[in-house]
Amino acid sequence: MKIYPFHLPELDYQLGDLAPMMSQETLSYHYGKHFQTYVDNLNHLVHDSKYEGMTLSDIVRKAPAGALANNAGQVLNHQLFFEQLTPSQHAKQPSSELMMLITQSFGSFEAMMEQLSQAALQLFGSGWVFLSTNATGELQIQSLPNGDNPLRYDLTPLLAIDVWEHAYYLDYQNRRKDYLKQLFLLINWHVVSNRVTPDVGFW
Hints:
Blueprint: H1 24-46, H2 56-62, H3 67-83, H4 96-106, H5 109-122, E1 127-133, E2 139-145, E3 156-162, H6 169-172, H7 176-183, H8 189-194
Antiparallel strand pairs: 1-2, 1-3
């Protein structure tokens, strides 16, 4: 997945495992069709270009605004999103390191989750909400449109919240608040916590 040709990453769960919070039908369309389309578009745009030998994260950082940046961003955003989901009840607490950062930045885990929820509810149109770290290790919540990604702003994304309608419309129609409430029950905080370490994942 790190360099061209890019491929749809395998999931650590089956498409039906996240129901009823996220239905198999939604995952079939969101992961199997939307995500695959972004991967296919990215491979087409990168082929025989100066980006062909770059990692996904470097393409996201360096591509000028336009089709390549949008599709690379959507591939990375969706990889972050699907990797951080789990049906397990044993991955529901951040690591002690991440919890310390959360407390320092937001006061409490509950306060951070409320701010993430409000940012996602208030984002107009299609886009993403991220929990990220900056160069000094402080946590930030960032709302970005379309396929934008925190890497383009020298931030490291830890948690990605998809608020494009295709992420939830089959299950929740226009009830974004209900979607967010159920999505938060699926977050694998072990995965999110591991992203605090720069050499994990894509970076």
